[in-house]
């Protein structure tokens, strides 16, 4: 007898990192609140979860992350000031973030790695499959990666990771997956995972990017996972256990992604993300592209 799988409704967003690559900007401001054009990076991630049908969002935070909670809460004083001015456009933008989803928060305490951050979500998630979205990866809403991953998980069970082919010289920056092709286009079976391998050690050029749909069995595996690289509990190590044939809570599948991804965890990529998104905005794009063309032309002549 086949039982219907539980519909995924919960998203977990780890947001306890210190953002040291962006110091001094992140000394008093969480890196997730750095603006990408005119919205903080974290709002794009929550909007992606909501667009995929996940209405319940748990943010795993740490010290000095109170601005995240404030951003997704109501600001009655600001709303009233905008209402008195008759500024309905800005009022709608201010209210948008507080109306997106049902938000919950838990503190990680000691930053012991991504695996530990996911483990902090266990009391909220319970025994249901759930999604994990890393705030440094922005996925363009025109490329519904998370929706596709949820479809794959609901069909095959187990867990699903997002995979993107990268230059082998860059694979040491990512978790890397060994994969076995399936009949379905864009979906593979993950047979092994290695966290930040050297080019010689990498089993493929497929990197795990910051989207996961996980079976709740991952919590029990994480509890037994010893600290790995940098003394942190690695989610990659737990998923490697689940990927083994016959392991309860498996299998692990990968969705191959070749769409638009913006890495806001790197200063250069963060700037490129802002430029790309600004260029594509109807309200900003035409004037900004004209300025950009003029600027680049001048730079090439100097």
TrEMBL record:
Its EC number is 2.7.7.9. InterPro entries: GalU_uridylyltTrfase_bac/arc, NTP_transferase_dom, Nucleotide-diphossugar_trans. The keyword Nucleotidyltransferase applies. The keyword Nucleotidyltransferase applies. One of its GO terms (molecular function) is UTP:glucose-1-phosphate uridylyltransferase activity. Residues 10-274 form the Nucleotidyl transferase domain. Keywords: Nucleotidyltransferase, Transferase. It catalyses: alpha-D-glucose 1-phosphate + UTP + H(+) = UDP-alpha-D-glucose + diphosphate. Belongs to the UDPGP type 2 family. PANTHER family: UTP--GLUCOSE-1-PHOSPHATE URIDYLYLTRANSFERASE (PTHR43197:SF1). This is UTP--glucose-1-phosphate uridylyltransferase. It comes from Streptantibioticus ferralitis. The gene is galU.
């Amino acid at each position: 007898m086949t039982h219907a799988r539980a519909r995924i409704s919960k998203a977990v967003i780890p947001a306890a990192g210190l953002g040291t690559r962006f110091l001094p900007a992140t000394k008093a401001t969480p890196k997730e609140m750095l603006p990408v054009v005119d919205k903080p990076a974290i709002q794009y991630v929550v909007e992606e979860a909501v667009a995929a049908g996940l209405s319940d969002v748990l943010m795993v935070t740490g010290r000095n992350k109170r601005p995240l909670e404030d951003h997704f809460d109501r600001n009655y004083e600001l709303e009233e000031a905008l209402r008195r001015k008759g500024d309905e456009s800005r009022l709608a933008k201010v209210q948008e973030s507080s109306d997106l989803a049902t938000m919950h928060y838990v503190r990680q305490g000691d930053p012991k790695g991504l695996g530990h951050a996911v483990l902090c979500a266990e009391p909220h998630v319970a025994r249901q499959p759930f999604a994990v979205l890393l705030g440094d990866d922005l996925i363009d809403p025109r490329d519904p990666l998370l929706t596709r991953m949820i479809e794959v998980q609901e069909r095959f069970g187990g867990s699903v990771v997002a995979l993107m082919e990268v230059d082998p010289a860059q694979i040491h920056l990512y978790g890397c997956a060994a994969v076995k092709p399936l009949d379905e286009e864009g979906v593979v079976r993950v047979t092994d995972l290695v966290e930040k391998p050297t080019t010689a050690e990498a089993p493929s050029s497929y990197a795990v990017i910051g989207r996961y749909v996980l079976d709740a069995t991952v919590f029990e595996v994480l509890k037994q996972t010893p600290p790995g690289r940098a003394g942190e509990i690695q989610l990659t190590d737990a998923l490697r256990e689940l990927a083994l044939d016959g392991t309860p809570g498996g299998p692990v599948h990968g969705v191959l992604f070749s769409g638009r991804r913006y890495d806001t965890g790197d200063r250069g990529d963060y700037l490129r993300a802002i430029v790309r998104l600004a260029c594509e905005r109807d309200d900003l794009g035409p004037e900004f592209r004209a300025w950009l063309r003029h600027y680049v032309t001048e730079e090439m002549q100097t």
